[in-house]
Amino acid sequence: MMKKTALIMAGGRGERFWPKSRKSLPKQFLSLTDDGRTMIQLTVERIRLLVEMEDIYVSTNQAYKELVAGQLPGLPPENILCEPMGRNTAPCIGMCAMYMAKKYGDALMMVLPSDHLIKYHKMYINALNDACGIAEKGNNLVTIGITPDYPETGYGYIKFRPEETEGNAYAVDRFVEKPDLETAKEYLETEEYLWNSGMFIWKVSTILDNFQKLLPAMYDGLEQIREAIGTQKQEMILEKVFPELESVSIDYGIMEKAQNIYILPGVFGWDDVGSWLAVERIQKSNESGNVVTGNIITIHSKNNIIQGGKKLIAAVGLHDLIIVDTEDATLICDKGNAADIKMVLENLKICNREEYL
Amino acid sequence: MMKKTALIMAGGRGERFWPKSRKSLPKQFLSLTDDGRTMIQLTVERIRLLVEMEDIYVSTNQAYKELVAGQLPGLPPENILCEPMGRNTAPCIGMCAMYMAKKYGDALMMVLPSDHLIKYHKMYINALNDACGIAEKGNNLVTIGITPDYPETGYGYIKFRPEETEGNAYAVDRFVEKPDLETAKEYLETEEYLWNSGMFIWKVSTILDNFQKLLPAMYDGLEQIREAIGTQKQEMILEKVFPELESVSIDYGIMEKAQNIYILPGVFGWDDVGSWLAVERIQKSNESGNVVTGNIITIHSKNNIIQGGKKLIAAVGLHDLIIVDTEDATLICDKGNAADIKMVLENLKICNREEYL
């Protein structure tokens, strides 16, 4: 089999874990599980079962380069690929594919989010291995789909054709955007839709062929970058070309238009850890249903998520709250209002209180 | 009229304002109103309308001497009377009466709590002036009673005889302990009970006569202290005699047994500021019913009491909570569970976490 590489996407700036996540410390660099390791550390550890450390790449932006290097000391420094600026996923993936083309000629490339959790590692590895097999055969683009438990409106969906298979995978009919609740319910009833996990598996040559065909202007820019790699002009060309690339997602720019796409159902306990509410799923609660970290006293309190540190937090008579204490900011939020945390951030932006963002 | 003096009782160690109040900083030294002045500062400011600064005394214990001196810079240092240890109110009041007897021979003595609020200062002063008149005439012990609005079970009550008056005051029938709710309701229906405000007015000579008659052993000890005042032995005698005095309240030791007690109804907007819930009565709330101090953002939140400082507190979807943030501890408490704050303190005591008490 062809050499396997992994590209871990770590440029995100999620706000849903405020105040623990900040512009300067997004979710992928936080520890949200019991064991103290950060999301990106867990991601690397998982994929190490399938990919050599020297073939793991992390794509991030310049601001997080030190964080990546600090949290992943075993990663070769040259494998941290920095975008000069955030331009959505297509330019980023394209640029990394060019790096890999230059280094390996061709290789299997697994694109993986840096901030999701997987419960069953062996099944995860088996699924990726299967996906690699399908990607290597012909010019297939493979994605991992998650069987929906409920009509989530926060994810993209992928429609597949149940009768058209390739190994354990199904041919993709189309990628669809986040649906409204009614539509999501219809999707579930058809049994022909899976959640889009953001994991993609393909050969470097296959994805670059698709860039050339579907995003030709971007491909030209990426070619210029490729030529400059390893030369003295590398930085200069990157700074000049990258900002001019179209800001478009890989889903919209490639996957919604490409041929030969297959989806492999992932049944390995996937969790995107999308908000503070997820902490209840991924950490153990005590007999009162409280999930607590830090220096906490709870009295007559049930089903709360409390994330503190050294400072004492006394919770008295509380139910169904999210409490997150950090050095300079404390969030106290009803679980039913978790989506309103973004209003706090909007408020802070309007008031130019950058220090809290 | 005889010289008027005030004894402000400031030895209390209230726990109901934890975590803002601590053993090292009890309620009387906190600012709980909008204007930033502490409870004891407000108390002194009020009584200054009737009593010269040099005739105002503050009784406290050694641990708070510096706090008193710091918060009341205009008070003569020798007017801070320190108990070697807390022995309830009777020994403390008796000792202070002895100091006053030595200094003035006789005087009118107003005993006042240091941690209550009064809304109408002129009516308050008029009431105390009336009380002084009644105390000066004969050997009367006068107390201020508050007309109950509702059957509070956290206060002592005083039964009076409506037909037996002395100026604006009524003869006291008896002092009663904190009642249960049923009994408190009955008290209100009789219209013959007032709340015990803890304010007492008498001549130094009258109260000492009562000590001699009703607490003769304590009186002997107080006499020894009196003789030592101003001598080299003062400290030594105080340290030796005071701890041996019976630990009993002035209510139980004297008022429940004495003759010639009168109660004057106080109608000056009294508030004992008994718990965090009182903050809603004494501070202005915003249009959402939130009473906030500090660096606070509220989103979809109503009727909360939030006391912060420099640290940002974001409240999202919260209703009827008490949130108090301090340097090393944060309380988050449902208003309906305010009485359970003491359980936090019990927990801290059991775990020997003295630093938070």
Automatic annotation (TrEMBL), chains A, B:
Molecular function (Gene Ontology), one example: GTP binding
CDD domains the record matches: GDP-M1P_Guanylyltransferase (cd02509)
Catalytic activity: alpha-D-mannose 1-phosphate + GTP + H(+) = GDP-alpha-D-mannose + diphosphate
GO annotation terms (biological process): GDP-mannose biosynthetic process
Listed Pfam families: ManC_GMP_beta-helix, NTP_transferase
Domain Nucleotidyl transferase: 6-284
Name of the molecule in the record: mannose-1-phosphate guanylyltransferase
Organism: Eubacterium plexicaudatum ASF492
